[in-house]
Amino acid sequence: MTHQREAAIIERLEAVGSVTVDELSRLLDVSGTTIRRDLERLELDARLRRVHGGATVARRPETPTTPELDADTREKEAIARATVALIADGEVVLLDIGITTLRIARHLRGRAVTVITNSLAVLDALRDDDAVSLVLLGGIVGSKPRTLVGPLTEEGLAQVRADIAVISSTGVKTDGAVVTDLTQEASIKVRMRQAADRAILVANTSKFPGSGSYRVASLADFETVVTTPTVDAEALAAAEQAGVRIVRV
């Protein structure tokens, strides 16, 4: 059972401090894919910290970086809730990869919407929900685990038309450029935005200016930007003057 595996993972972490996917797979007699899903859920609940190939214990409260991590999680959750409120029942939603978009997917459970995505994490979040119509784009596994990219993904996007595309990024520059550091995913983000009637950018404080060298859009290409009150970026002011709706949560 999922909760039994999660309890066993946390118990092992508390005993040894760090674990690998292979180790947990052998210990619990399940596939590495199942373990990675468990680790992702536990990280979203702030019960551990994922690292390459496994996980370590979550940072303790006395750790100086903990307040920032907690704030980052709170911001992404608030952005997810606000974004879901912008989606009406019956709409078709293109959902990008990312932690915030995964949280959005979870809040869409039970809603009469169609979700089209290239995220295997979103697939896991919605695959057993009878209310959501779920469409997974084809493709090859991307540079970021649990994503699908490549010509097949782009071909699939060329065949769909959505009401809304929800896009994430790794940075928003002062000139309004929306960028990513994931080369394979860059073109997918562009095509997602182009395949929708309107596009929403989700970006918390850490994305201003963030990082990344691959430009996927300008802020002016989005109908709405959902962000946080602490962001006081010149780029946002210019976008708002250009007619972009800025939602601060």
UniProtKB/TrEMBL annotation:
<comment type="function">
    <text>Repressor of the lactose catabolism operon. Galactose-6-phosphate is the inducer.</text>
</comment>
<dbReference type="GO" id="GO:0003677">
    <property type="term" value="F:DNA binding"/>
</dbReference>
<keyword id="KW-0678">Repressor</keyword>
<dbReference type="GO" id="GO:0003700">
    <property type="term" value="F:DNA-binding transcription factor activity"/>
</dbReference>
<dbReference type="InterPro" id="IPR036388">
    <property type="entry name" value="WH-like_DNA-bd_sf"/>
</dbReference>
<protein>
    <recommendedName>
        <fullName>Lactose phosphotransferase system repressor</fullName>
    </recommendedName>
</protein>
<keyword id="KW-0805">Transcription regulation</keyword>
<dbReference type="InterPro" id="IPR001034">
    <property type="entry name" value="DeoR_HTH"/>
</dbReference>
<keyword id="KW-0238">DNA-binding</keyword>
<dbReference type="InterPro" id="IPR036390">
    <property type="entry name" value="WH_DNA-bd_sf"/>
</dbReference>
<dbReference type="Pfam" id="PF00455">
    <property type="entry name" value="DeoRC"/>
</dbReference>
<keyword id="KW-0804">Transcription</keyword>
<dbReference type="Pfam" id="PF08220">
    <property type="entry name" value="HTH_DeoR"/>
</dbReference>
<dbReference type="InterPro" id="IPR014036">
    <property type="entry name" value="DeoR-like_C"/>
</dbReference>
<dbReference type="InterPro" id="IPR037171">
    <property type="entry name" value="NagB/RpiA_transferase-like"/>
</dbReference>
<dbReference type="InterPro" id="IPR018356">
    <property type="entry name" value="Tscrpt_reg_HTH_DeoR_CS"/>
</dbReference>
<dbReference type="InterPro" id="IPR050313">
    <property type="entry name" value="Carb_Metab_HTH_regulators"/>
</dbReference>
<feature type="domain" description="HTH deoR-type">
    <location>
        <begin position="2"/>
        <end position="57"/>
    </location>
</feature>
